[in-house]
User: What shape does this take?
Amino acid sequence: MNEKTEELRDIFTDVTDGEETVTESQENTRGSLERDERSDEERLESVVTQMRERYGFETALSTEELIEVARAFYDGTSDEAVADELGVDPDEVFEARLSLHLFDEDDADEVDLAAIRDRDEDDATLADEYDVSEEQIRRYRRVAQAEDQSRTANDRYRDEFDSILADAELTGRMTTDVREDGLEDATEGMETDVDF
Assistant: This one.
């Protein structure tokens, strides 16, 4: 070692409290593409529990029933059909679904939510203006409120539901498509009209 190198080495050891080397052991960390170790059911239960704690929404539905509401939403099942299955009123399913931030354009197809969101007029005035019932205006206002809550949370819960339920559906559909395509390729050109 030349004089400069020794001088730098001495400075280094002084700064590092006498350590000769400064290296940290590296760990294999999981990337963001790793699949969550929990089951879909456990992940859904976690999301619903977090939402209940954060928003304090009141419902007679159990966590398992709220998970069924979420699954039904992604399956395209109507609130009425879910209500029949759970033995509750459709309005309760609607309220539970919105509490879970699960809504779509069909929930407010007759009005512009942005237009009614900040309006101070009463339900009767807005119902006359939009030519709908007061009950529908109350529902639209509830959808707007759920939309605002979801946005405030950066759609975090909605994204979590998407990742669990929409991805599961997509995976199932892709697996079926691959199986069908593979079978189609394997049987292409085969004689199928055979007499024994």
